[in-house]
Amino acid sequence: MSQNINRQQVEKVAHLSRLDLTEQELELFSGQLSAIVEYIQKLNELKTDDVEPLAHCLPIHNVFRQDTVRPSLNVEKALENAPDRVDDFFKVPQILEESGA
Amino acid sequence: MLEGLNAIQLRENIRSGKIQSRQAAEYALKRIEKLNPSIGAYLNVFADKAMEQARAIDAKVAAGKPVGLLAGVPIAVKDNICYTEGTTTCGSKILANFRPPYNAHVVEKLLAADAVILGKTNLDEFAMGSSTENSGLQKTVNPWDKSRVPGGSSGGSAAAMAAGLCFAALGSDTGGSIRQPASFCGIVGLKPTYGRVSRYGLVAYGSSLDQIGPLTTCVEDAAMMLQVIAGHDQRDSTSVDNQTAPVTDYLSQVEKPIDGLKIAIVPELIDKAEASVRNAVRAALELYKKLGATLVEVQMPHFDYSIAAYYVIATAEASSNLARYDGCHYGYRSPNAHDYIEVYSKSRAEGFGAEVKRRIMLGTFALSSGYYDAYYLKALKVRNLIRRDFTNAFAKADCLMMPVAPSTAFKFGEKMDDPLQMYLADVYTLAVNLAGVPGISIPCGFDDKKLPIGLQIIGPAFSEDKLLRIGRMFESKTNYHRQKPTLQE
């Protein structure tokens, strides 16, 4: 089978997807994704130069509403499912390095 | 007394006081207790809450107060639809403990119509799959044959219906996830037009394709359920307002046959299904002819490309939608993460199952720099060609008929090692979502193993009223929908 996605590309896509995959998964997905991408190339049989892309099928386009203040989730409810919190905030590991300046 | 009643008959009995809502809820809860351990349809059952809802409806009836369209009808809801009772897991470990802070629009509608919500049903993780085998939490079997899958992704809702563990159910359909399990389980499943039902509170998979719809024992019940859930909701900007496409009276019209019905068929498509399926579909077409319908052969030259287009578009949308599972705001956080990147990448790697990872990867690939035009943009153009095929078919006929799936329910594990084989089995359902049109699956026969077969009827956008009437024409002359599987504990 031709490799439509090679192992290196699978690693790159896993990184872009923020998925810390195991060696086994990378191996398995390389083969499976390659077969699926090969199948998808079927789309190239069709000539589409003059065809508009269709993102959705709705008969509507922009949807506007009045810019009025409405109640929304309160802080307690919004934080109810947080894996970790401190006071009224979501708690996450440190993102920025300590600045020496 | 309750055995064999459909939802409308049950409601009529509750409204008139012949049956109490709490008797119906107790009946369903007892069946769940007895049969769910071996079927695995429900992930969560809210017995106390359901009884509380049932008692409130009985009190209304006793006091002579008006009751809603679903008065006292016990209903199951797919577990990707938010309900403030219990958890909404999407069949995923990443959301195993997620408790929604609000109700989905359709849940509000069910409750406002005086339904009793029994519990939440199993699904392929994040509705990604065609067999419910991708659930990260539980196995669901087909009540007709426990060695076979119930279909998917709304397999829990379909199995609950087929086993009589509820009187109606809600599912969601992104590429066939209502119609295909309905077909595998011998019940009715309706995917409404994209925009007909608000998706507010439905956990997003493929946002330009997702639609909520009913799974029921008969067409009339599907009409009633659609009546309850259809309509505009400003919290979902893709839900269509009443001026663009009014919600009509689906229920009162459903018994009215269509005079001079014209049915479009693509003979090569029907030929692709296995013998039992194509014979059942052809027999159904013969019956329609006897009822006065005319068959019109049409060409749909791009139909065959729907699998390739769908698995680019749906996975691209999924990769974007599922970026929200970051281990920070809600859902699972890996205890093994040391920095913020690992909070994302380890939480997601440990929380998602294989199929979800595959689809995120495929979608990310199709959207990534250097591949966007060749895959994503190309698929959107082909989507337009597929929609044109439907428009051309509907210019010549009222509806299109074809199988729902190429086979009846398959065995567990049969397609799990080869994801592409699983995708190819979606050949009849995906195009309907790409074109945004409504489709219904109704029981039209059984194969030699006594496994149900579904007939798919597809109509133009917002033609649900007609679609239901066409479905009812067949159902009123047949008995397939009345057959039930034999169940032991």
Name a few traits of the molecule.
heterodimer, A: 101 residues, mainly alpha, Histone, subunit A, two-stranded antiparallel ribbon, flat, B: 489 residues, alpha/beta, Amidase signature (AS) enzymes, eleven-stranded mixed beta sheet, 17 helices, 40% helix
Instruction: Name the quaternary structure.
Output: heterodimer
- What portion of residues of chain B belong to β-strands? 5-15%
| N-to-C CA distance of chain B | 21 Å
The first-level CATH class name of the domain at 7-45 in chain A: Mainly Alpha
- The coarse silhouette of chain A is flat
CATH architecture of the domain at 7-45 in chain A: Orthogonal Bundle
Question: What radius of gyration of chain A results from the CA coordinates?
Answer: 23 Å
The succession of helices and strands of chain B, N to C, reads: HHEHEHEHEHEEHHEHHEHHHHEHHEEH
Tally of separate helices of chain B: 17
Calculate Rg of chain B over CA atoms. 21 Å
The chain-level mean pLDDT of chain B equals 97
Structural commentary:
The complex is a heterodimer of chains A (101) and B (489). Chain A is mainly alpha-helical. Chain A is built from three helices and two strands. Chain A has a two-stranded antiparallel sheet. In chain A, helix 1 packs across helix 2. The longest helix of chain A has 18 residues. The termini of chain A are far apart. The model of chain A has no long low-confidence stretch (mean pLDDT 90). In chain B, 40% of the residues lie in helices and 12% in strands. Chain B has 489 residues and is an alpha/beta fold. Chain B has an eleven-stranded mixed beta sheet with strand order 1-3-2-4-6-5-10-11-9-7-8, with helices on both faces. The mean pLDDT of chain B is 97. The longest helix of chain B is centred in the C-terminal third of the chain and has 25 residues. Chains A and B meet through helix 1 and helix 2 of A and helix 11, helix 12, helix 13, helix 14 and helix 15 of B.
Topology, element by element:
The complex is a heterodimer of chains A (101) and B (489).
Chain A: H1 7-16, H2 23-40, H3 75-79, E1 85-86, E2 89-90
Antiparallel strand pairs in A: 1-2
Helix pairs in contact in A: 1-2
Chain B: H1 7-15, H2 21-39, E1 42-45, H3 47-62, E2 74-78, H4 105-112, E3 116-121, H5 155-162, E4 168-172, H6 179-185, E5 188-191, E6 212-216, H7 219-229, H8 250-253, E7 262-265, H9 267-271, H10 275-290, E8 294-297, H11 306-321, H12 340-351, H13 354-367, H14 372-396, E9 399-403, H15 419-424, H16 430-435, E10 439-446, E11 452-458, H17 464-475
Parallel strand pairs in B: 2-3, 2-4, 7-8, 7-9
Antiparallel strand pairs in B: 1-3, 4-6, 5-6, 5-10, 9-11, 10-11
Helix pairs in contact in B: 2-3, 5-6, 7-17, 11-13, 11-14
